[in-house]
Amino acid sequence: MDFSLYLNPQTPGPEHDARIIRDTIEAAEYADRNGFRSICLTEHHFSNYNTYADPFLFGSHLAARLRQAWVVLTVATLPLHHPMRFAEQVNLLDQLTGGRLVVGIGAGGSSIEFDGMGRPLGTRHAALSRHLDLARQAWAMRMGDPPLDWNTPHDAGTVHARVMPAPHTHGGPLLARAALSEESTVATGKEGLALLMGRFGPEHAERQLRIYTDALTSAGYDDEHVGRCLHWTGLAKMIHVAEDDATARAEVEPLVDSYIEAANYSRSADRAEAGVAQAARSAAEKGSGMMHEKDDYLERAVIYGGPERVAEQLAAYQRIGLGHLMLWFSWGFMDHDTVMGSMRRFVDKVVPVYRDITGDRS
Asked: What number of helices (H) and strands (E) belong to the chain?
């Protein structure tokens, strides 16, 4: 199982943006030097939920600084993108990373973001399918092909020649899709995309992984493509590593409060994840079938503790066959020293224990 650094830092306000962006770059470079498989970039607009907002621009900057880590978009909100510009940006970022790129896409879910970009929230799933189909048609264009006439409810055009630049990766970079429901999970497998799951525990993740794997393997893709998809299939977890369990709990609780405030203001996809998690619990397990929001985050979304406890939690995901765990160290307006302290303890103390537990040397 690979570990990646998931970057989605909240900001308290505009006077903090420059510092947080510099700190985020420093964290990415530290992860690159210390064996993290990839740097995962998100997309959020018009709130304090993600400081850098644009994963393509930020990814292009990181591409010149990273020496071994891949760039993974987790995810680009495709309904908010012009489909032809999206096709160009993917190919350019693939060139800039030397082919170390995975492009995750999602439908989004924040009314703040869709309102700001002038797009209707209610048609986002249809827009996701339409924009992806148009981008694929554009990527397939060759010199001498007939023109490609295309349209969406908001844009239209005619492509007369190929997308420039060509991708670095033969056939283009691997695409992935964020999916929560069983229906979207099956569709992701049938489309031959890697799967990006919600922030769930091992039991839920194992069920979703099994549904996805069945759909992917039954769709007729060759073994190489299936293996590539499964390798990059994974989920993100908020994480905090302290010297011991008690300290971690004391430090995490106020951070969760701050994070919930930011997530609720941005109307982010967290609410959809929480809804899925609550629906999965029976009334017998939780009394009313509902959980307090903070308890839900601590149970579902966060890995925290001293090195031994964190290593055990990571090992639970390795045992279900997960290929890729994206670790979110900076969240809830966490200060940079706290972030880097947690990352260093992860590298120096957690990883050796995890390897002893699992025998995983990847």
From this structure: 15, 11
Count Cβ atoms below 10 Å from residue 348 Cβ, excluding itself.
12
Quote the DSSP letter at residue 123.
Answer: G
293 touches 260 (CB < 8 A): yes
Amino acid at 86: F
Question: How far, in Å, are 2, 24, 144, 195, 229 from residue 86 at the CA level?
Answer: 27, 24, 22, 20, 21
* Distance of alpha carbon 77 from alpha carbon 3, whole angstroms: 23
Q: How far apart are CA 237 and CA 207, in angstroms?
A: 17
SS (H, E, C) 3-69: EEEEECCCCCCHHHHHHHHHHHHHHHHHHHHCCCCEEEECCCCCCCCCCCCCHHHHHHHHHCCCCCC
pLDDT above 80 (res 281)? no
Q: What is the pLDDT of residues 3-23, one digit of tens each?
A: 999 999 999 999 999 999 999
Helix/strand/coil for 300: helix
Strand pairing class (148-151; 156-159): antiparallel
pLDDT tens sequence across 143-172: 999 999 999 999 999 999 999 999 999 999
Establish whether the linkage from the previous residue to 75 is cis, with ω within 30° of 0. Answer: yes
Query: Locate tokens 């210390």: which residue?
Result: 34
Say how far apart CA 306 and CA 356 lie, in whole Å. 16
E strands within the chain? 2-7, 38-41, 70-77, 101-106, 148-151, 156-159, 174-178, 194-197, 234-241, 302-305, 324-328
- CA-CA distance, 26 to 256, in Å (whole number)? 23
Region 41-55 average pLDDT:
95
In the CATH scheme, what is the homologous superfamily, with its name and number, of domain 2-358? Luciferase-like domain (3.20.20.30)
Assessment of whether the complete model's pTM goes beyond 0.85: yes
Q: Where are the domains of the chain?
A: 2-358
